[in-house]
Amino acid sequence: MTRALRAEWVKLRTVRSTGLALVATFVLALLMTVVSASGSHFGYDGPEAFDSGTFVHRTAAGDGTFTVRVADQKDSGNWAKAGLMLRGSTEGGAAYATILLTSGHGVRMFVDGKNEKTADVSGATRWLRLTRDGDRITGYQSADGRRWDEVATLTASRLSARTEAGLFVTSPPRTVERRIGPGAAAVHPVATTGRAVFDHVAFPGTDGAWRQTDIFQKYARGGMRNPTTEPQPYTRADGRLTVTGSGDLGALGTAGVGLEPAPPDQVKETLETGTRLAAIAVIALGVLSVTSEYKTGTVRTTFTASPRRGRVLAAKAVVLAGVVFAVGLAASVASPYVARPYQRENGFRPPLFPDISLTDPATLRAVVGSAAYLALIAVLSMGVGVLLRRTVPAVVLMLTLVIVVPIVGSSTSIAFSDFVEGATPTAGLAIQQTRQLIEYAVAPWTGFAVLCAYVAVVLGAAGWRLARRDV
Predict the structure, then answer these.
(1) CA of 242: how far to CAs of 53, 97, 238, in Å?
(2) What letters, b where the CB count within 10 A reaches 16 and e where it falls short, cover 432-466?
(3) CB-CB contact of 421 with 183 (8 Å)
(4) Secondary element (H or E) of residue 300
(5) From the centroid of its chain, how far is CA 260?
């Protein structure tokens, strides 16, 4: 097998078209990455920060420690929030510091929607504490009220000495998505109401009775508005306060703001167009790696030197896949860095769109998977070349299957588009997905498995026919 691999490597690298196809693969991938990044735009018509909900509070003067237990929290959404807050005033957009429990994402602490710190906890019950020392606000969380874990110490420079200290509840809208066409979805927000029960409330040094303020979001004129429900009065019985609220708290990229529904898949959009176009060069390389030998008659020499045709086919597949994977990986790794300046300029900026990092498992899978997709398309093309033995019909068939049919699918119906994306070789591009979006027809590994199945079937058929037909 080693000798067969060496022979196939020598043949592949000495053919002039190999170098041209590999250079075209790399250049096309990067070129289309730039074109795609330059032409894609992300627009947002809403506020950068949200500040609305129900605030039950008392006046606090100076430093102090404020403690409460969230005894129960209604699961009105993964980002429903309930917790402690210090506010400069009860006006929307005022300075604040908060530590809160979310329904599905643990404990969060931040100041004015910035510098978010987290504690990975679960459940609808949690003790929370804020300690103020001048501008320094320290947040703690506990499971039992005895052992406390520090979440963070943040600076709240905008908070005045006299603040409103209290309990805060809010629940962002639930997003209802529906598909409106191939690769497209529409979003309809539906207001939700959060509810939390607080007990063990300890606010030493605060003045006056508990007061409820329903904080309303301030919107710029013409800006997108989130729907909310009507505020409800809080209730107090047996030392327990029940508070309901609707709205959201945080800034884009903080505390779930802007994350539901999931924004566009920046990684997939960066890689997909370049990978699709690079597949054209890869198809030509895969087909020619076989049909050129049939055309020149050198295939006879190959099988004379290595009579075991199955081994020769396997060696061709391994060498071709390895070379294409290496070039494809170089292009895939470079693409995010080449595209990033254009994406930032067109609205894909942190914190909602952080810089792409190869340390993120989903991103790494997408990058490596793009190279693997090209390698498998090359091997599939080689198998088709073995079956047809003629360059033009094999190339036309592969281009139709990998390039033309997906274009047709994207311009017809949702049903046909989903069929193409989930049941043809182009399903392998699902490996580039890093977010769960409603418009995706197939999961990453499922789609990649479909492509692998095509390769296995075609290679099996090619090996069977190769062993039973004269050269």
Answers:
(1) 14, 21, 11
(2) bbbeebebbbbebeebbbbbbebbeebbeebbeeb
(3) no
(4) helix 298-305
(5) 11
Closest CA to 388 of 253, 282, 288: 288
d(CA 442, CA 419): 10
Inter-residue contact 283 to 397 (CB < 8 Å): no
- The pairing of beta strand 235-237 with beta strand 96-102: unpaired
357-415: pLDDT as tens digits: 888 999 999 999 999 999 999 999 999 998 998 899 999 999 999 999 999 988 888 88
Phi, psi of 87 (to 5 degrees): -125, 145
Residues 6+ apart with CB under 8 A from 208: 58, 59
Q: Report how far apart, in Å, the C-alpha atoms of 109 and of each of 153, 370, 421 are.
A: 9, 38, 41
* 3-class secondary-structure state, position 272: helix
Strand spans (E) along 204-352: 206-215, 235-237, 240-245, 249-251
Q: Residue 401 in contact with residue 424, Cβ under 8 Å?
A: yes
Helix, strand, coil % (nearest 5) of the chain? 45, 25, 30
Look at residues 173, 380, 402 and name the one whose alpha carbon lies nearest to residue 278: 402
Q: Count of CB atoms within 10 A of residue 160's CB?
A: 11
Distance CA 432, CA 332 (A): 11
Report d(CA 193, CA 230) in Å as an integer. Answer: 9
Each residue's pLDDT tens digit, 291-346: 877 776 666 666 655 656 667 788 889 989 999 999 999 999 999 888 888 888 88
Q: What is the spatial distance between Cα 450 and Cα 92, in angstroms, rounded to a whole number? A: 52
Q: Determine the distance from the C-alpha atom of residue 122 to the mean position of all C-alpha atoms in its chain, rounded to a whole number.
A: 23
**Cβ 140 vs Cβ 131: under 8 Å:** yes
* Gap between the Cα atoms of 422 and 445, Å rounded: 11
Contact 232, 74 (CB under 8 A): no
Phi, psi of 416, deg, nearest 5: -70, -40
Strand ranges (DSSP E) for 80-202?
81-87, 96-102, 107-111, 114-119, 126-133, 136-142, 149-155, 162-170, 174-181, 184-190, 194-202
- What pTM was computed for the model? 0.78
- Please spell the DSSP secondary structure of 330-385, one letter per residue: HHHHHHHHHHHHHHHHTT--TTTSPPP-TTSHHHHHHHHHHHHHHHHHHHHHHHHH
In the numeric block, the tokens 């990067």 are attached to 30
Low-confidence ranges of the chain (pLDDT < 70): 1, 3-16, 43-47, 220-224, 296-310, 469-471
